[in-house]
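Sample pair:
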Amino acid sequence: MLPTILIIGSLNTDLVSTAPRLPAAGETLLSSGFHIAPGGKGANQAVACARLSSRASLSVRMCGAVGNDSFAAPLTAALSASGVDTTLVRAVDGPTGTAVIIVDEASGENRILVHPGANAAVRAAELQREEEEQHAHMWDGVKALVLQLEVPADTAVWALRRARSKGITTVFNPAPALESGLDTCWKDVDWLVVNETEAAMLTGVHVRELDAADGAVAAAEELRGRGCGAVVVTLGGRGCYWCDKAGNSGWQGVTVGKEEVVDTTGAGDTFVGALAVAVVEGKSAGEAVEWASRAAGAAVTKRGAMDGVPWRHEIEATAV
């Protein structure tokens, strides 16, 4: 059996509008474009893991839920097309999760509003029951677990603890961030990946302070101090800062020019998926962050969250 990355997380349908700029409060703008695409942080990260791994040496398994509406089938088909095993994706009554996304066509920046839909059914108790009764081999071959917070927080806490008990490496992207409910999980996190907003909410370091190097370092070290193995604070167009339990740390710059940015939607998910692949493949912390940064850089040069995820050969072609 090939080593496996298991993603437990969300599957959404993205409803994407582009506009000449982001609307102000109470303002109505005419959209310059609209399209529907498969997405969700969990699904995007699963696709990133699959596209950025070597099919001959690694497999990717998605665990989540879709609704019983017309959005469900295209979502699972999109995952399968990228090489993701969807046998642990179940259908439940109600709507599939959705995300309404507005993209500023000038800068590529975005605003996202998510409705959980079926993702709310991905509960710890249900997964434990399925593991015991239906999917006894759910964890077979799993070397890394990837998690986010578009499913209930108690699910993430349970899965992190379960993975730790099995010696599985964990990669946790607590997005969207919560102010409470995660206090007991940090010791079970091998890699924590947060952006500026999430770092500020989790640590109390004001987001403005993260504009300076000292602020990013303080936030990362505070999170590391809670027991995480390694922490990455991504800073958009300014790259990222990382530190690990061995005392190693560093700054990673962006890998594309500002003029190349088309759409930042999904760049963070690509980073997380690429990082998980690099860790399973045995790269050092610095190498893993550099690989993930190159993958995220390639993602922002394309439109769409899942559609923008690059393939392994595209990233290998950019190696210096």
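Residues 285-299 form the longest helix (15 residues).
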